[in-house]
Amino acid sequence: MTSPKPISPDLSVSPQIAVDDVARLAADGFRAIICNRPDGEGADQPTFDEIEAAARAAGIEARYLPITQGKVGDDDAAAFDALRRELPGPVLAYCRSGMRSATLWSLGAAKDRPTAEILAATRAAGYDMSGVVRRIVNGGRTPTDTADSSHDIVIVGGGAAGVSVAASLKARKPGANIAIIDPADVHYYQPGWTMVGGGIFDAKSTAKTMGSLIPTGVHWIKAAVAAFEPDANAVILDGCRVVKYKRLIVCPGLKLDWHGVDGLVETLGKNGVTSNYRYDLAPYTWELVQGLKSGRALFTQPPMPIKCAGAPQKAMYLSGDHWHRTGRLKDIEIAFHNAGGVLFGVKDYVPALMEYVNRYRADLEFFNTLIAVDGPARKATFRVAKPDTDPTEVTVDFDMIHVCPPQTAPDFIRVSPLADAAGWVDVDQATLRHKTYDNIWSLGDVMNAPNAKTAAAARKQAPVVAENVVADIRGKAPVAQYDGYGSCPLTVERGKIVLAEFGYGGALKPSFPKWLIDGTRPTRAAWLLKEQILPPIYWRAMLRGKEWMARPEALSAAEG
Questions:
Q1: How far apart are alpha carbons 96 and 37 in whole angstroms?
Q2: Which pLDDT band, with edges at 50, 70 and 90, does 504 fall under?
Q3: Residue 404 annotated in active site
């Protein structure tokens, strides 16, 4: 017998079982069996009466709900759900392969479980529910509608990447029928939140209404995506609305997994626990920095990949600078707990950063991953996993802690056919075209190219995707390539920045001559760029399809 595959705490599914398997199932703790395979479907299968007799002898219950292969009806799913709730658990359901049983559970669970959770649970058990995803999104019922809308190009995500690529496409193909799918009312300039947490920017300056930024002529579908059907060129929205496309661009950003740290959600925004990764919390960071006179301040960085890898230490530098300028640094202990093993992934910038680590007397704790926060007790627990040593845990007291949360691809991406094994959209790193589906592209934080996840990267990626989509519309091969460019303006003190610019493999990609901005050293010019020039470039150029210093590079013959 194949081992049962759990798909919920009270239900497992399995291929056909034999009479001799029933006693073992009882010994393993199962208290009920549901047979979803009609008698006589296969010459070698036991009848339900035989299974039921073995179950009775083993002291467990058995029920018969036969389903014809490929014909799981809505009433069948409702009957299965009622039966599962009625029987003592845990329950084993079986059919020929387990697929019918998994489908019945998925449709029954759709009334009270998120679609992504259902798809993740069944996928982990080895069952692909893509064939019934519309029914799952529709609460387990068969939808009667067809596509609600159809567009030449559909863009999933209205953040920096989505709006920028829409604007770049409109500039190239003014008549194209383009739609952006995004449920948010507000669009944020997230690179500004570090400056908010350092008391330089006002939080309100980093937010504008989504409607004011959607390019003219682009349809805005204000809804959340539930699932993808790439073989049918369809995006399924919450509520089971269907949007069809000829070409799809996927850029919904990533998910900040606040629940990935035990106790964090309950204490965010109080008890000295803050994060510049949230609009509403960045002002609290500055409040804490101003209010701290003495004690211990912790700054954390989770395992990669994360949005803007320099942001966790930028918060540390700006805080340390304030305490240095106000004469409090001697009374404040700073520690940077990094899940990785280096301060910054591109070694050319590390010497300049280390000067500031030493200036602020910050302790660097590598291979330290935050796993729990007890806000009222002001304690943080880290998992320490140094190379060639057994993992341990250490608990540290704090007066203030700035947390960078763990980050993953959004749930609806991770369980989709678009994702690689790690959950990110699987693209060619040069053309940003999906490796399996030729009419799908991706950019921004959600795709799996090995580049830094920054707004500066999206600024370079948007024209590449726009060029390649337009080439595809014209029946041509890809014409533009992305070189992995990313930028991280590391705010090491108020008035100076180390402007890290690099591409694939850590190759330096400076935008300015060294006499103007030497990116490996802290400069005032880089600070002026970050404080005064980049915000208007973002709002007035990048989001409007004006590709200042972002013209796409032609695809080389080797890549093509």
A1: 6
A2: very high
A3: no
